[in-house]
Each structure stands twice: as C-alpha cells, then as structure tokens.
Design brief:
Largest sheet: 2 strands, antiparallel
Helix content: 55-70%
Strand order of the largest sheet: 1-2
Radius of gyration: 16 Å
Shape: globular
Strand content: under 5%
Length: 182
C-alpha cells in the first residue's frame, strides 16, 4: 500500500496528495529500520525496496517542507529517512552509494529554493549511511564533493552578481556537505 501511494500524483506539485506520498515514504522508513534489527527481507527484496525509494526520490517534484496552515509535507526529508536505513543494510548491493550520491545531486539541482526545514540534515544522514559502507566508493564521494566545489566557484566567478536559482542550488549543496561533515 505504501509503495503504491508513492505514485499518487507523483510528478505534480501543490496538491494535497503530497501528504499521502510523503508520509508513506516515512512509514516505509520504519520498515527499512526494522529489517536492520530483525532481518526479514531477502537481499533481492531489499534491493527492490532501495530501487523503489530511489526512483520515488528522483521523480518527486513537490519539495515543500512545511506550511503553517497545512503542516509538514517534507518529501525530501521523509524519503531520506528511508534511504538512511536502507543504505545501512549490509544486504544492499555494492554501488548503491554511488547511485544515492547521483540522486542527491539531481535532487539538489532540481530545486530552485533553499531548503529551510532541515532537509539538508536528513539528506546528509542518508549519505553518511551510504558512504560509511565497507563497499563505498571513496573516489565517487571525492568526485561528488569536487563537483560542488567547482559549482560554488563558478557561482561566484562574476563577483556579487549571481543567479538566484544557482545560488539556491549551491547553498543546498553546501548545507548538505556541512551536515555530512558534522
């Protein structure tokens, strides 16, 4: 049910179906966490679970965090919670860290506003789980980090005259990296 809910209105932004998708992702994070303490998923099932969450993360376009009248939507944070637990699982296939790094880069580059509701911390926790795996690709993390360093340098190449959308992207990457480092 929860994985099916991830498709309801996927690709759209601004309607209430975001709550169904987001809180389904959060509920799925509990299943991912439970498999760590009492394993019940087969390796193929866990990999399919990771693939499904990664697909949802990449395709979700409603990135609102919180609205005072409506409450928490938080798709980025809730999906990151699930990815955090999935990435900690030793049954997950090698190379999953690289796929998650790419998905996070794409998500940051798709958002034209600075994350304001703690999304950076939750994304960083998912990345931390992925890059601490024994099979993690250190070169991929170095390349990912270097990409953001270059993007930051390019943003400020013309002095204080910056593109606001590019600023938001660089700021989100900077905050994720700050959280990851901390």
């Amino acid at each position: 049910l929860w994985t099916k809910n991830l498709d309801d209105g996927l690709g759209l932004a601004g309607d209430d179906r975001v709550f169904k998708r987001s809180f389904s992702a959060l509920s799925l994070s509990v299943i991912a966490a439970a498999d760590l303490s009492t394993p019940f998923l087969e390796p193929a099932e866990l990999q399919a679970f990771f693939d499904r969450m990664l697909d949802y993360f990449q395709r979700e376009r409603d990135l609102r965090g919180f609205d005072p009248a409506r409450g928490w939507m938080h798709t980025v944070a809730h999906t990151s919670d699930a990815m955090k637990f999935l990435a900690r699982n030793p049954k997950l296939a090698a190379g999953s860290d690289v796929r998650l790094l790419a998905a996070v880069r794409d998500k940051i580059e798709s958002h034209d506003a600075v994350f304001a509701w703690g999304e950076d911390d939750r994304v960083a926790l998912a990345l931390q789980s992925a890059v601490r795996r024994p099979d993690a690709d250190a070169a991929a993390l170095a390349a990912w980090t270097q990409y953001w360093v270059k993007t930051h340098q390019d943003l400020w190449a013309n002095g204080p005259h910056v593109d606001p959308r590019r600023f938001a992207i660089v700021q989100n990457a900077k905050e994720v990296m700050n959280s990851l480092h901390t």
